[in-house]
Design goal:
mainly alpha, 2 domains, two-stranded antiparallel ribbon, 6 helices, about 60% helix, rod-shaped
């Protein structure tokens, strides 16, 4: 995966906002900006610039931080930092949004499983009734 460094000064110029504002938005919503590394070694994907543009547009319309983050969450991936046990280092992993097609497929599978569970319950109920029936009745009913 190709990453490139997006410096906050460049972001400010590209977005036509002060550098300090670009830095504020970058820091405030960093979990929604695709990146790797941390601290001074943090590198951003080009998609981070698109996310920052969305943040600036919404902030200019006085959109709340919660609404901005909800839109960012729907629009793209989210970075999650995972601590590895063997060397206590942090690794950034991207959580990808689930597509509607995948969601529909999952819901179809759940519906199928629900039908299967209902069928098994009915069979279980029949078996329970069969077991409750005395042995002699079962023998003579079968002939």
């Amino acid at each position: 995966m190709q990453y490139e460094v997006i410096h906050h000064c460049k972001n400010g110029k590209d977005l036509k906002i002060p550098v300090s504002t670009a830095s504020y938005y970058r820091d405030r919503h960093s979990e929604f900006l695709p990146h790797t590394g941390s601290g001074r070694k943090k590198k951003y994907k080009p998609e981070a610039l698109e996310a920052l543009k969305l943040i600036v547009e919404m902030a200019n319309k006085n959109t709340s931080t919660e609404d901005i983050e909800e839109s960012l969450s729907k629009a793209g991936s989210r970075n999650i930092e995972v601590q590895q046990d063997n060397n206590n280092s942090l690794t950034t992993v991207q959580q990808q949004p689930i597509s509607q097609v995948k969601l529909i497929n999952l819901l179809d599978k759940i519906a199928d499983q629900k039908k299967e569970i209902q069928t098994l319950r009915e069979e279980f109920k029949e078996l329970r009734e069969y077991i409750k029936t005395p042995l002699l009745k079962r023998i003579f009913r079968g002939s």
